Protein backbone atom coordinates (compact mmCIF):
# COMPACT_ATOMS: atom_id res chain seq x y z
CA UNK A 1 0.00 0.00 0.00
CA UNK A 2 2.75 2.47 0.81
CA UNK A 3 4.59 2.24 -2.63
CA UNK A 4 1.23 2.94 -4.26
CA UNK A 5 0.61 6.03 -2.15
CA UNK A 6 4.01 7.37 -3.05
CA UNK A 7 2.98 7.39 -6.74
CA UNK A 8 -0.56 8.87 -6.10
CA UNK A 9 0.40 11.89 -3.99
CA UNK A 10 2.42 13.67 -6.74
CA UNK A 11 -0.49 13.16 -9.14
CA UNK A 12 -3.03 14.69 -6.72
CA UNK A 13 -0.79 17.66 -6.09
CA UNK A 14 -0.43 18.33 -9.81
CA UNK A 15 -4.27 18.11 -10.21
CA UNK A 16 -4.93 20.62 -7.44
CA UNK A 17 -2.45 23.09 -8.92
CA UNK A 18 -4.14 22.82 -12.31
CA UNK A 19 -7.61 23.49 -10.81
CA UNK A 20 -6.37 26.51 -8.87
CA UNK A 21 -4.85 27.99 -12.02
CA UNK A 22 -8.10 27.54 -13.97
CA UNK A 23 -10.17 29.19 -11.21
CA UNK A 24 -7.83 32.16 -11.09
CA UNK A 25 -8.05 32.66 -14.81
CA UNK A 26 -11.89 32.54 -14.63
CA UNK A 27 -12.02 35.13 -11.82
CA UNK A 28 -9.71 37.48 -13.68
CA UNK A 29 -11.80 37.10 -16.82
CA UNK A 30 -15.04 37.83 -14.90
CA UNK A 31 -13.51 40.86 -13.23
CA UNK A 32 -12.22 42.11 -16.52
CA UNK A 33 -15.69 41.75 -18.13
CA UNK A 34 -17.58 43.47 -15.24
CA UNK A 35 -15.13 46.26 -14.63
CA UNK A 36 -16.80 49.10 -16.62
CA UNK A 37 -20.35 48.76 -14.93
CA UNK A 38 -19.53 50.25 -11.47
CA UNK A 39 -17.85 53.18 -13.10
CA UNK A 40 -20.92 53.87 -15.28
CA UNK A 41 -23.32 53.51 -12.28
CA UNK A 42 -21.19 55.88 -10.22
CA UNK A 43 -21.31 58.53 -12.94
CA UNK A 44 -25.14 58.35 -13.17
CA UNK A 45 -25.54 58.56 -9.37
CA UNK A 46 -23.16 61.53 -9.26
CA UNK A 47 -25.06 63.37 -11.97
CA UNK A 48 -28.37 62.65 -10.25
CA UNK A 49 -26.99 63.84 -6.92
CA UNK A 50 -25.83 67.13 -8.41
CA UNK A 51 -29.12 67.77 -10.21
CA UNK A 52 -31.20 66.92 -7.12
CA UNK A 53 -28.98 69.03 -4.87
CA UNK A 54 -29.44 71.99 -7.20
CA UNK A 55 -33.25 71.59 -7.10
CA UNK A 56 -33.24 71.38 -3.31
CA UNK A 57 -31.17 74.57 -3.03
CA UNK A 58 -33.63 76.38 -5.28
CA UNK A 59 -36.54 75.41 -3.04
CA UNK A 60 -37.34 77.69 -0.08
CA UNK A 61 -36.58 76.13 3.27
CA UNK A 62 -34.51 73.25 1.82
CA UNK A 63 -31.10 74.92 1.47
CA UNK A 64 -29.63 72.93 4.36
CA UNK A 65 -30.77 69.55 2.98
CA UNK A 66 -28.04 67.33 1.47
CA UNK A 67 -28.59 64.39 -0.84
CA UNK A 68 -26.61 61.26 -1.74
CA UNK A 69 -27.67 58.92 -4.53
CA UNK A 70 -26.54 55.27 -4.54
CA UNK A 71 -27.93 52.80 -7.05
CA UNK A 72 -31.09 54.88 -7.57
CA UNK A 73 -31.73 55.37 -3.82
CA UNK A 74 -31.72 59.02 -2.66
CA UNK A 75 -30.65 59.56 0.94
CA UNK A 76 -31.78 62.94 2.31
CA UNK A 77 -30.13 64.44 5.38
CA UNK A 78 -30.15 67.82 7.04
CA UNK A 79 -32.26 70.11 9.26
CA UNK A 80 -35.46 72.03 8.42
CA UNK A 81 -37.72 74.32 10.46
CA UNK A 82 -41.12 73.00 9.42
CA UNK A 83 -42.62 69.55 8.99
CA UNK A 84 -44.00 70.70 5.67
CA UNK A 85 -40.45 71.38 4.43
CA UNK A 86 -39.46 67.83 5.33
CA UNK A 87 -42.33 66.41 3.28
CA UNK A 88 -41.60 68.78 0.42
CA UNK A 89 -37.96 67.62 0.29
CA UNK A 90 -39.08 64.01 -0.05
CA UNK A 91 -41.55 65.00 -2.77
CA UNK A 92 -38.84 66.83 -4.75
CA UNK A 93 -36.49 63.85 -4.50
CA UNK A 94 -39.15 61.36 -5.59
CA UNK A 95 -39.82 63.42 -8.75
CA UNK A 96 -36.15 63.24 -9.83
CA UNK A 97 -35.63 60.92 -12.87
CA UNK A 98 -33.69 57.80 -12.02
CA UNK A 99 -34.71 57.79 -8.33
CA UNK A 100 -36.49 54.61 -7.35
CA UNK A 101 -36.67 55.12 -3.58
CA UNK A 102 -36.15 57.94 -1.08
CA UNK A 103 -34.81 57.57 2.43
CA UNK A 104 -35.83 60.70 4.29
CA UNK A 105 -33.49 61.34 7.24
CA UNK A 106 -34.23 65.05 7.48
CA UNK A 107 -34.97 66.22 11.05
CA UNK A 108 -36.71 69.27 12.47
CA UNK A 109 -34.63 72.00 14.04
CA UNK A 110 -35.01 72.44 17.79
CA UNK A 111 -32.93 75.57 18.13
CA UNK A 112 -34.91 78.34 19.80
CA UNK A 113 -33.33 81.13 17.79
CA UNK A 114 -34.25 79.49 14.51
CA UNK A 115 -37.82 78.83 15.63
CA UNK A 116 -38.22 82.44 16.77
CA UNK A 117 -36.78 83.67 13.50
CA UNK A 118 -39.26 81.54 11.57
CA UNK A 119 -42.19 82.78 13.65
CA UNK A 120 -41.08 86.39 13.20
CA UNK A 121 -40.76 85.90 9.45
CA UNK A 122 -44.23 84.39 9.20
CA UNK A 123 -45.75 87.15 11.32
CA UNK A 124 -44.10 89.88 9.25
CA UNK A 125 -45.26 88.17 6.06
CA UNK A 126 -48.87 88.04 7.27
CA UNK A 127 -48.68 91.65 8.46
CA UNK A 128 -47.37 92.74 5.08
CA UNK A 129 -50.21 90.93 3.32
CA UNK A 130 -52.73 92.48 5.69
CA UNK A 131 -51.42 95.98 5.02
CA UNK A 132 -51.48 95.31 1.30
CA UNK A 133 -55.11 94.12 1.56
CA UNK A 134 -56.19 96.92 3.93
CA UNK A 135 -58.01 99.00 1.26
CA UNK A 136 -59.95 95.95 0.14
CA UNK A 137 -60.71 95.11 3.78
CA UNK A 138 -62.07 98.62 4.35
CA UNK A 139 -64.31 98.23 1.30
CA UNK A 140 -65.59 94.91 2.64
CA UNK A 141 -66.35 96.47 6.05
CA UNK A 142 -68.17 99.30 4.31
CA UNK A 143 -70.28 96.75 2.42
CA UNK A 144 -71.23 95.02 5.69
CA UNK A 145 -72.12 98.36 7.32
CA UNK A 146 -74.27 99.35 4.34
CA UNK A 147 -76.01 95.95 4.44
CA UNK A 148 -76.74 96.42 8.15
CA UNK A 149 -78.17 99.90 7.55
CA UNK A 150 -80.21 98.71 4.56
CA UNK A 151 -81.54 95.77 6.60
CA UNK A 152 -82.72 98.06 9.39
CA UNK A 153 -84.36 100.41 6.90
CA UNK A 154 -86.10 97.59 5.04
CA UNK A 155 -87.16 96.03 8.35
CA UNK A 156 -88.75 99.29 9.51
CA UNK A 157 -90.54 99.65 6.20
CA UNK A 158 -91.86 96.10 6.49
CA UNK A 159 -93.06 96.77 10.05
CA UNK A 160 -94.81 99.98 8.97
CA UNK A 161 -96.48 98.16 6.09
CA UNK A 162 -97.76 95.49 8.45
CA UNK A 163 -99.01 98.18 10.84
CA UNK A 164 -100.88 99.98 8.04
CA UNK A 165 -102.68 96.77 7.18
CA UNK A 166 -103.67 96.29 10.85
CA UNK A 167 -101.81 92.97 11.05
CA UNK A 168 -100.07 94.17 14.20
CA UNK A 169 -103.37 94.58 16.04
CA UNK A 170 -104.08 90.93 15.33
CA UNK A 171 -100.56 89.78 16.13
CA UNK A 172 -98.14 92.29 17.70
CA UNK A 173 -95.23 89.86 17.56
CA UNK A 174 -95.49 89.27 13.81
CA UNK A 175 -94.29 92.77 12.86
CA UNK A 176 -91.22 92.50 15.10
CA UNK A 177 -90.47 89.01 13.79
CA UNK A 178 -90.64 90.11 10.15
CA UNK A 179 -88.52 93.19 10.88
CA UNK A 180 -85.73 91.13 12.44
CA UNK A 181 -85.93 88.52 9.66
CA UNK A 182 -85.49 91.14 6.92
CA UNK A 183 -82.65 92.79 8.83
CA UNK A 184 -80.68 89.57 9.31
CA UNK A 185 -81.19 88.45 5.72
CA UNK A 186 -79.79 91.76 4.44
CA UNK A 187 -76.83 91.49 6.80
CA UNK A 188 -76.12 87.94 5.66
CA UNK A 189 -76.11 89.07 2.04
CA UNK A 190 -73.65 91.86 2.88
CA UNK A 191 -71.30 89.45 4.66
CA UNK A 192 -71.31 87.08 1.69
CA UNK A 193 -70.47 89.94 -0.70
CA UNK A 194 -67.65 91.13 1.59
CA UNK A 195 -66.14 87.65 1.80
CA UNK A 196 -66.32 87.33 -1.97
CA UNK A 197 -64.40 90.60 -2.31
CA UNK A 198 -61.73 89.26 0.04
CA UNK A 199 -61.52 85.99 -1.89
CA UNK A 200 -62.70 83.97 1.10
CA UNK A 201 -65.67 82.23 -0.50
CA UNK A 202 -64.19 78.86 0.44
CA UNK A 203 -64.29 80.01 4.05
CA UNK A 204 -68.01 80.69 3.67
CA UNK A 205 -68.64 77.10 2.62
CA UNK A 206 -66.61 75.78 5.54
CA UNK A 207 -68.38 78.06 8.01
CA UNK A 208 -71.82 77.18 6.65
CA UNK A 209 -71.01 73.49 6.79
CA UNK A 210 -69.76 73.78 10.35
CA UNK A 211 -72.80 75.85 11.29
CA UNK A 212 -75.05 73.13 9.86
CA UNK A 213 -73.37 70.42 11.90
CA UNK A 214 -73.37 72.57 15.05
CA UNK A 215 -77.01 73.51 14.47
CA UNK A 216 -77.96 69.85 14.11
CA UNK A 217 -76.16 68.95 17.34
CA UNK A 218 -77.72 71.87 19.20
CA UNK A 219 -81.11 70.96 17.78
CA UNK A 220 -80.93 67.51 19.32
CA UNK A 221 -79.53 68.88 22.58
CA UNK A 222 -82.12 71.65 22.97
CA UNK A 223 -85.03 70.01 21.20
CA UNK A 224 -87.58 70.84 23.88
CA UNK A 225 -86.48 74.49 24.12
CA UNK A 226 -86.61 74.91 20.35
CA UNK A 227 -90.00 73.17 20.22
CA UNK A 228 -91.43 75.52 22.85
CA UNK A 229 -90.02 78.58 21.07
CA UNK A 230 -91.47 77.57 17.68
CA UNK A 231 -94.80 76.76 19.34
CA UNK A 232 -94.77 80.20 20.99
CA UNK A 233 -94.23 81.89 17.61
CA UNK A 234 -97.05 79.87 16.04
CA UNK A 235 -99.39 80.63 18.94
CA UNK A 236 -98.62 84.34 18.64
CA UNK A 237 -99.44 84.18 14.93
CA UNK A 238 -102.61 82.09 15.22
CA UNK A 239 -103.73 83.73 18.51
CA UNK A 240 -106.25 81.18 19.80
CA UNK A 241 -106.65 83.23 23.02
CA UNK A 242 -106.11 86.72 24.41
CA UNK A 243 -105.05 88.08 27.83
CA UNK A 244 -107.70 87.67 30.51
CA UNK A 245 -109.59 84.89 28.75
CA UNK A 246 -110.62 81.78 30.67
CA UNK A 247 -109.10 78.58 29.26
CA UNK A 248 -109.21 74.88 30.00
CA UNK A 249 -106.18 73.14 28.50
CA UNK A 250 -106.01 69.39 27.97
CA UNK A 251 -109.15 69.06 30.13
CA UNK A 252 -106.87 69.41 33.15
CA UNK A 253 -105.48 72.94 33.53
CA UNK A 254 -107.86 75.87 33.91
CA UNK A 255 -107.22 79.56 34.47
CA UNK A 256 -107.15 83.02 32.93
CA UNK A 257 -104.43 83.99 30.46
CA UNK A 258 -101.82 86.33 31.92
CA UNK A 259 -99.07 86.24 29.26
CA UNK A 260 -97.62 84.27 26.36
CA UNK A 261 -93.81 84.21 26.55
CA UNK A 262 -91.49 82.69 23.92
CA UNK A 263 -91.26 79.50 25.98
CA UNK A 264 -94.40 79.21 28.13
CA UNK A 265 -98.02 80.25 28.53
CA UNK A 266 -98.78 81.82 31.92
CA UNK A 267 -102.22 81.34 33.48
CA UNK A 268 -103.76 82.49 36.75
CA UNK A 269 -105.94 79.83 38.35
CA UNK A 270 -109.18 80.49 40.21
CA UNK A 271 -107.19 80.24 43.44
CA UNK A 272 -104.91 83.09 42.35
CA UNK A 273 -101.89 80.86 41.66
CA UNK A 274 -99.56 81.16 38.70
CA UNK A 275 -99.72 78.21 36.29
CA UNK A 276 -96.89 78.02 33.71
CA UNK A 277 -97.41 75.59 30.83
CA UNK A 278 -94.87 74.86 28.04
CA UNK A 279 -95.96 76.32 24.72
CA UNK A 280 -95.52 72.95 23.01
CA UNK A 281 -98.05 71.41 25.41
CA UNK A 282 -100.54 74.22 24.80
CA UNK A 283 -100.05 74.05 21.03
CA UNK A 284 -100.64 70.28 20.86
CA UNK A 285 -103.45 70.07 23.45
CA UNK A 286 -107.18 70.61 23.20
CA UNK A 287 -107.83 74.20 24.34
CA UNK A 288 -111.33 75.12 25.51
CA UNK A 289 -111.79 78.90 25.47
CA UNK A 290 -114.71 79.93 27.66
CA UNK A 291 -114.29 83.63 26.82
CA UNK A 292 -114.04 83.60 23.02
CA UNK A 293 -117.82 84.11 22.86
CA UNK A 294 -119.25 86.89 25.03
CA UNK A 295 -122.40 84.83 25.63
CA UNK A 296 -122.09 81.72 27.73
CA UNK A 297 -124.72 79.21 28.81
CA UNK A 298 -125.30 78.15 32.40
CA UNK A 299 -127.22 75.11 33.57
CA UNK A 300 -128.39 73.53 36.78
CA UNK A 301 -130.68 70.68 37.85
CA UNK A 302 -133.69 70.87 40.21
CA UNK A 303 -135.10 67.64 41.73
CA UNK A 304 -138.75 67.56 42.84
CA UNK A 305 -140.98 64.95 44.35
CA UNK A 306 -142.55 62.40 42.02
CA UNK A 307 -146.01 63.53 43.09
CA UNK A 308 -145.54 67.05 41.66
CA UNK A 309 -146.65 68.20 38.21
CA UNK A 310 -143.75 68.54 35.79
CA UNK A 311 -145.56 71.21 33.77
CA UNK A 312 -146.32 73.29 36.84
CA UNK A 313 -142.76 73.05 38.16
CA UNK A 314 -141.21 74.02 34.82
CA UNK A 315 -143.49 77.07 34.41
CA UNK A 316 -142.70 78.36 37.90
CA UNK A 317 -138.96 77.76 37.46
CA UNK A 318 -138.82 79.43 34.04
CA UNK A 319 -140.64 82.48 35.44
CA UNK A 320 -138.10 82.74 38.26
CA UNK A 321 -135.12 82.34 35.91
CA UNK A 322 -136.40 85.06 33.55
CA UNK A 323 -136.61 87.46 36.46
CA UNK A 324 -133.00 86.86 37.59
CA UNK A 325 -130.57 89.71 36.96
CA UNK A 326 -127.98 88.85 34.31
CA UNK A 327 -130.07 86.27 32.44
CA UNK A 328 -130.47 87.21 28.78
CA UNK A 329 -133.86 87.33 27.14
CA UNK A 330 -132.41 86.38 23.74
CA UNK A 331 -131.68 83.54 23.63
CA UNK A 332 -134.13 82.85 26.42
CA UNK A 333 -134.03 80.16 29.13
CA UNK A 334 -134.92 76.55 28.29
CA UNK A 335 -135.47 73.30 30.14
CA UNK A 336 -135.62 69.52 29.81
CA UNK A 337 -136.47 66.52 31.98
CA UNK A 338 -133.11 65.08 32.93
CA UNK A 339 -134.24 62.03 34.90
CA UNK A 340 -137.11 60.20 36.56
CA UNK A 341 -137.07 57.43 39.13
CA UNK A 342 -139.06 56.25 42.11
CA UNK A 343 -137.72 58.98 44.42
CA UNK A 344 -137.51 62.16 42.29
CA UNK A 345 -138.06 63.91 39.00
CA UNK A 346 -134.99 65.89 37.87
CA UNK A 347 -135.51 68.94 35.69
CA UNK A 348 -132.49 70.67 34.07
CA UNK A 349 -132.70 74.37 33.22
CA UNK A 350 -130.50 76.42 30.85
CA UNK A 351 -129.94 80.16 30.54
CA UNK A 352 -127.53 82.53 28.76
CA UNK A 353 -125.31 85.17 30.33
CA UNK A 354 -123.31 88.05 28.82
CA UNK A 355 -119.86 87.56 30.37
CA UNK A 356 -118.90 91.18 29.66
CA UNK A 357 -121.56 92.42 32.11
CA UNK A 358 -122.28 89.52 34.48
CA UNK A 359 -120.40 86.73 36.18
CA UNK A 360 -121.53 83.24 35.18
CA UNK A 361 -121.15 81.74 38.66
CA UNK A 362 -123.03 84.54 40.37
CA UNK A 363 -125.91 84.48 37.91
CA UNK A 364 -126.17 80.71 38.24
CA UNK A 365 -126.32 80.98 42.04
CA UNK A 366 -129.00 83.67 41.89
CA UNK A 367 -131.03 81.62 39.41
CA UNK A 368 -130.94 78.54 41.64
CA UNK A 369 -131.95 80.65 44.63
CA UNK A 370 -134.82 82.23 42.71
CA UNK A 371 -136.14 78.85 41.49
CA UNK A 372 -135.93 77.33 44.95
CA UNK A 373 -137.76 80.26 46.51
CA UNK A 374 -140.47 80.26 43.86
CA UNK A 375 -141.11 76.54 44.19
CA UNK A 376 -141.20 76.81 47.97
CA UNK A 377 -143.77 79.60 47.78
CA UNK A 378 -145.90 77.48 45.47
CA UNK A 379 -145.77 74.54 47.87
CA UNK A 380 -143.71 72.33 45.52
CA UNK A 381 -142.12 69.61 47.62
CA UNK A 382 -138.52 68.45 47.15
CA UNK A 383 -137.79 64.72 47.01
CA UNK A 384 -138.49 62.96 50.26
CA UNK A 385 -135.71 60.94 51.80
CA UNK A 386 -138.26 59.10 54.00
CA UNK A 387 -141.15 57.30 52.35
CA UNK A 388 -144.43 57.85 54.20
CA UNK A 389 -147.04 55.10 54.29
CA UNK A 390 -149.96 57.39 55.17
CA UNK A 391 -151.15 60.68 53.79
CA UNK A 392 -151.01 63.64 56.18
CA UNK A 393 -153.14 66.76 56.13
CA UNK A 394 -151.68 69.64 54.15
CA UNK A 395 -151.40 71.79 57.29
CA UNK A 396 -149.14 69.22 58.91
CA UNK A 397 -147.01 68.61 55.82
CA UNK A 398 -146.00 72.24 55.40
CA UNK A 399 -143.06 72.95 57.67
CA UNK A 400 -143.18 76.15 59.72
CA UNK A 401 -140.59 78.80 58.88
CA UNK A 402 -137.39 78.58 60.82
CA UNK A 403 -136.66 81.46 63.16
CA UNK A 404 -134.11 83.87 61.71
CA UNK A 405 -134.52 82.65 58.08
CA UNK A 406 -134.54 85.43 55.48
CA UNK A 407 -137.84 85.51 53.64
CA UNK A 408 -137.69 85.68 49.86
CA UNK A 409 -139.51 88.44 47.94
CA UNK A 410 -143.18 87.76 47.39
CA UNK A 411 -142.87 87.93 43.61
CA UNK A 412 -140.15 85.26 43.59
CA UNK A 413 -137.60 87.47 41.79
CA UNK A 414 -133.96 87.74 42.87
CA UNK A 415 -131.99 90.97 43.30
CA UNK A 416 -128.58 89.52 44.22
CA UNK A 417 -125.15 90.60 42.96
CA UNK A 418 -124.49 89.32 39.43
CA UNK A 419 -121.69 91.70 38.43
CA UNK A 420 -118.51 90.52 36.71
CA UNK A 421 -116.09 88.82 39.09
CA UNK A 422 -112.99 91.00 39.53
CA UNK A 423 -111.22 88.89 42.15
CA UNK A 424 -108.38 87.90 39.79
CA UNK A 425 -107.85 91.31 38.17
CA UNK A 426 -105.01 92.23 40.51
CA UNK A 427 -103.28 88.87 39.96
CA UNK A 428 -103.63 89.17 36.18
CA UNK A 429 -102.23 92.70 36.20
CA UNK A 430 -99.24 91.63 38.31
CA UNK A 431 -98.45 88.69 36.00
CA UNK A 432 -98.77 90.87 32.90
CA UNK A 433 -96.38 93.44 34.38
CA UNK A 434 -93.91 90.67 35.24
CA UNK A 435 -93.89 89.36 31.66
CA UNK A 436 -94.33 92.67 29.84
CA UNK A 437 -90.87 92.47 28.24
CA UNK A 438 -91.46 89.07 26.64
CA UNK A 439 -95.23 88.91 26.21
CA UNK A 440 -96.27 87.96 22.66
CA UNK A 441 -99.92 88.93 23.17
CA UNK A 442 -101.46 92.43 23.09
CA UNK A 443 -102.03 94.23 26.37
CA UNK A 444 -105.80 94.36 26.02
CA UNK A 445 -108.38 91.82 24.97
CA UNK A 446 -109.92 92.18 21.55
CA UNK A 447 -113.59 92.71 20.66
CA UNK A 448 -115.98 90.27 22.18
CA UNK A 449 -113.63 89.40 25.10
CA UNK A 450 -114.58 89.41 28.73
CA UNK A 451 -111.46 91.28 29.76
From TrEMBL:
Residues 42-110 form the BON domain. One of its GO terms (cellular component) is plasma membrane. It is found in: Cell inner membrane; Cell membrane. PROSITE patterns: BON. Keywords: Cell inner membrane, Cell membrane, Ion channel, Ion transport, Membrane, Signal, Transmembrane, Transmembrane helix, Transport. Residues 404-451 are annotated as: Disordered. Its main location: membrane. Homoheptamer. This is Small-conductance mechanosensitive channel. It comes from Luteimonas granuli.
Amino acid sequence: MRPYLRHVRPALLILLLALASAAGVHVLARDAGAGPAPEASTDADLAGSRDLARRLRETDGLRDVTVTVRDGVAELEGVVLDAGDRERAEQVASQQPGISRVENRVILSTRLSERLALATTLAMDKLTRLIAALPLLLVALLVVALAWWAGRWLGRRAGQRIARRNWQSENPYFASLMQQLVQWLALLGGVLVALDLLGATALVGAVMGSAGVIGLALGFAFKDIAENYVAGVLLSIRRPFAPGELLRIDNTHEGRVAALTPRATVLVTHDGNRLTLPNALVFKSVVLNFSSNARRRLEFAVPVDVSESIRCVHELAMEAIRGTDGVLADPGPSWTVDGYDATAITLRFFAWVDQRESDLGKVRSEAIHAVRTRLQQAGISPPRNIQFTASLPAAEVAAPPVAGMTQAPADGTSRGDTSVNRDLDAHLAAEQRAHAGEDLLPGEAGPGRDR
